[in-house]
Amino acid sequence: MRAAAFDYHAPQTIDEALKILARHGVESRILAGGQSLVPAMTARHARPAHIIDINRIGQAERPTISGGRLRIPPLMRHIDFAGGAVDGPLGLLMADLSHHVSTLPVRLRGTFCGAIAQAEPASEWCLASVVLGAEMVARSAGRGGRAIEAADFFETIQTTALADDEMLVEVQIPLLPAYARHGFYEVTPRAGSFALAMALVVYDEDEDEMSDVRLGIGAVEAVPRRIPEAEALLNHRPPSKRLFREVSEAVADLVQPMDDEFADPVWRRALTRTAVARALERSLRRPLDSAERP
User: pLDDT (tens digit, 9 = 90+) per residue, 118-127?
Assistant: First the structure.
């Protein structure tokens, strides 16, 4: 099947792209990596009348660091994080997650901001943005820019707080302290397919205790979210197998899993338990020894 007919636009600047978007609104779609949009158009699940290709916009692929934040532009590709786009713990976390994004061809072409705007429940970047407290910077030609907290940005499956005339021009992620640690785990049916459950934990290493714990789940519910009850169980406690099992059980009880063609709620709940436990274990520099096991 071929895509339906559309008008093609290739703006040279973000301002030019926003003017085109303002003229055509809901009838237009932004094309960055195209790894979600193009297949949807080919299958005619999406039939935009106007395509706004932003790949000719200069300086849109280079991240910057200012004000204690990593600022990710609209054309930064998934693969760019693999080589360490930023130093320190945040760079290690982003590099780790980048290797889990779909397949190599998608990582080479797809963009971070495109994945955020697509708002797939199983997106590694959507989960990371929520756990790390990112801010999404949206702009329109008429109203200018606004910042949207990640927790408010994702509304439901493939639906965000972006208005029809707004473009996601930047994602800002706070840098992590030098002693921050992370653990990530996802359960997928096969390499490159959408995850059925994933978990990300980030915390500060304070001697033998975990502090400032942030733990979130993705691919389980319609949007990724943090689990404050689990964070409270982990905060200011030393890691142990017993604690990790307690937390993973608590998270599995708290979630409201989706019921779709990929997994029923009972299975997703069990996979959530596994994903949380293994993400916590992967946050450690070394496996727990026998003295630390229950």
Answer: 999 999 999 9
- Dist. CA 240–CA 213, nearest whole Å: 15
Tokens 């707004």 locate to 166
Rounded to two decimals, what is the model's pTM?
0.94
Neighbour count for residue 26 (Cβ, 10 Å): 10
Q: Count other Cβ atoms within 10 Å, centred on residue 154.
A: 27
CA–CA separation, 204 vs 282, rounded Å? 14
159-160 vs 144-149, strand pairing mode: unpaired
Report pLDDT digits (tens) over 128-151. 999 999 999 999 999 999 999 999
CA 199 to chain centre: 11
CB 114 within 8 A of CB 76: no
What is the distance between the alpha carbons of residues 166 and 160, in angstroms, rounded to a whole number? 11
CB atoms inside a 10 Å sphere around CB 233: 17
Give the list of residues 6+ apart from residue 76 with CB closer than 8 angstroms, or none. Answer: 61, 62, 63, 85, 111, 112, 113
Residue 11, Cα to own-chain centre: how many angstroms? 27
The token pair at 139 is 């702009």
Other Cβ atoms closer than 10 A to 45: 8
How many whole angstroms separate alpha carbon 90 and alpha carbon 249?
28
Q: Nearest-5° angle of CA 175, CA 177, CA 182?
A: 85
pLDDT of 45-71, one tens digit each?
A: 889 999 999 999 987 788 999 999 999
